[in-house]
Design a protein that fits this description.
Shape: elongated
Strand order of the largest sheet: 1-2-3
Mean pLDDT: 86
Radius of gyration: 22 Å
Helix content: 40-55%
Order of helices and strands: HHHHEEEHH
Low-confidence stretches: none
Number of helices: 6
Number of strands: 3
Strand content: 5-15%
């Protein structure tokens, strides 16, 4: 299923206990956590869930993708959870203060932070200087 249409069909759809403070603070052996992980155990969307939430990047607290997360660290996993499901294929972190960082902000459709904006400005300035130097060499 493409996009995020799977969310409505996930076994956890509409269940706020997956992201409640009680769940996030709970021990991996707490009955509520075990119950929620058992719901994830039969879910066919564990990888997509991790891609949507990006728990390690967002410092997620709660149950997502068959794992109990606290501050973006997986503390426990449901039975049958595979390590390959943990790969977050969503947005990569931005390398701030670089020209690549400025391009990443642009691709995301967001304003560049001051560090990336300055790096982009300096890179553009250097390109213009090289272009002027090349055109004067040709004359």
């Amino acid at each position: 299923m493409s996009g995020n249409g799977w969310v409505a069909e996930a076994p956890c759809a509409g269940d706020s206990r997956f992201t409640s403070e009680e769940t996030a603070a709970g021990a991996p052996t707490q009955p509520l956590v075990l119950q929620l992980l058992s719901v994830c155990q039969v879910c066919p969307f564990r990888s997509q869930c991790i891609d949507l939430v990006l728990p390690s990047q967002s410092l997620f607290d709660g149950v997502c993708g068959g794992r109990l997360w606290r501050n973006g660290q997986a503390l426990a996993a449901c039975e049958g959870a595979r390590p390959g499901e943990l790969r977050e294929r969503g947005r990569r972190p931005i390398t701030h203060g670089t020209e690549a960082g400025a391009r990443a902000h642009n691709r995301r459709g967001e304003p560049a932070c001051s560090l990336c904006r300055e790096a982009g400005r300096l890179a553009q300035q250097a390109r213009r200087a090289r272009k002027r130097a090349n055109s004067s060499d040709e004359k």
